[in-house]
Amino acid sequence: MATIVVGGQWGDEGKGKIISYLALKDKPDIVARAGVGPNAGHTVTYKGKKYGVRQIPSGFVHEKARLLIGAGVLVNPEVVLKEIKDLNLEGRVGIDYRCGIIEKKHVELDRGSEHLAKQIGSTGTGCGPANVDRAYRKLKQAKDVEELKPYLTDVAKEVNEALDKGLGVLVENSQGFGLSLYYGTYPYVTSKDTTASMACVDIGIGPKKVKDVVVVFKSFPTRVGAGPFPTEMSQEEAERLGIVEYGTVTGRRRRVGYFDFEMAKYACMINSATQIALTCVDYLDKDMKGVRRYEDLSRKVREFIEKLEEETKVPVTIISTGPNLEDTIDLRKEKL
Ligand code: GTP
Ligand code: IMP
Ligand code: MG
């Protein structure tokens, strides 16, 4: 049975960190990437090195895992080939032959469009225009791109066969609940749904193949680009709290807000969450940075966790106290 990791806010919740942690800890045989495409940037900080991956699953840190990109995901050949080369992943990566292909014209359309670039504040990576072409049924597929030939595979088949054999499959979604085309803050959203059900579609598994849905929340949510953010705080307040983040893909400064429990409840409902991973608890209490035992967490952090569980009725099983993989408190044994 598969485990799916999704974002519960407006993306950048720290999915990269959580997925890479789970990959190293649980050692899944396959880590499969779902989500929109190279608009995402997952940060993985491991052994003192920081990686920002836009197409390759963050689970690459587990060296035995096969790394797959599902049919639903848009691929920019230049971006994916560079990541394979830079991370030395030749031989481990499989790209579904049906993945949609982002071409230069899509990037130009995205960046040149008053509506997408200025009003919505898109990432300018061509994803929106490519999904338009996909719906219009004139988008190229991965099988039409010569340079991708060595990597082509049937991801749905690989994943389903692995699950049938009882192997471990970790599914990595991107973006976040508030950016869902259907359930987010439309029209200030991305070009596709971003929930766990869509992640299943992206890689080609049915809902009965899923054991766990881990929703990742950040203790202070962030948002890049335009759109409503009911709990947003001023830049000065964010600075005072020491929360200054910049986008992995675009370099834009992220807007910061207070935790929105109503939104979290709703995100857990639509994702059918079985677990919550809570990141950046060191933003709640600076002294908590790098803490690795639940007993060492301050009362403030523990009370926050209790309230989150009470509101959502979902156990908080993983707590992140810093960007490094090792800065993680894993309560799955105790709570599940
Ligand atoms: P998208 O797929 O683009 O939505 O991104 P993401 O969810 O993978 O998150 P991203 O890596 O873009 O942003 C999260 C940021 O928070 C990164 O800079 C991480 O290194 C950092 N981070 C993750 N967990 C923690 C944590 O517990 N504490 C602190 N201080 N930073 C963290
Ligand atoms: P697009 O997906 O590039 O069209 O951008 C649409 C909206 O989604 C913009 O507000 C982007 O900032 C946001 N967005 C898309 N992908 C991500 C992501 O991975 N992290 C955070 N925001 C994202
Ligand atoms: Mg990101």
Notes on the protein architecture:
It is a single chain. The protein is an alpha/beta fold and 336 residues long. The protein has one domain (2-335): Adenylosuccinate Synthetase, subunit A, domain 1 (Adenylosuccinate Synthetase, Chain A, domain 1), CATH 3.40.440.10. The chain is built from 11 helices and 16 strands. The protein has helices at 15-26, 77-86, 104-112, 114-120, 127-135, 155-164, 196-203, 235-240, 261-271, 299-312, 332-335, and strands spanning 2-7, 30-33, 42-46, 49-53, 66-69, 74-75, 93-96, 100-101, 152-153, 169-172, 210-218, 222-223, 255-256, 275-279, 316-320, 328-330. It has a 10-stranded mixed sheet with strand order 9-7-5-2-10-1-11-14-15-16, with helices on both faces. It is globular. The chain starts with a strand and ends with a helix. It binds guanosine-5'-triphosphate, inosinic acid and magnesium ion (MG).
List keywords for this structure.
ten-stranded mixed β-sheet; binds inosinic acid; binds guanosine-5'-triphosphate; globular; 11 helices
First-last Cα distance: 16 Å
Q: Which CATH first-tier class would you pick?
A: Alpha Beta
Number of helical regions:
11
Structural class: alpha/beta
In helices, the fraction of residues equals 25-40%
- What is the CATH topology classification name? Adenylosuccinate Synthetase, Chain A, domain 1
Strand order of the largest sheet: 9-7-5-2-10-1-11-14-15-16
Order of helices and strands: EHEEEEEHEEHHHEHEHEEHEHEHEEH
Shape: globular
Largest sheet: 10 strands, mixed
Number of strands: 16
The CATH architecture classification is 3-Layer(aba) Sandwich
What ligands can be seen in this structure? guanosine-5'-triphosphate, inosinic acid, magnesium ion
At the fourth CATH level, what is the homologous superfamily? Adenylosuccinate Synthetase, subunit A, domain 1
In terms of per-residue confidence, which ranges show pLDDT below 50 for 5 or more consecutive residues? Answer: none
| Binned strand content | 15-25%
Q: How large is the radius of gyration?
A: 19 Å
Count of discrete structural domains:
1
| Global mean pLDDT | 97
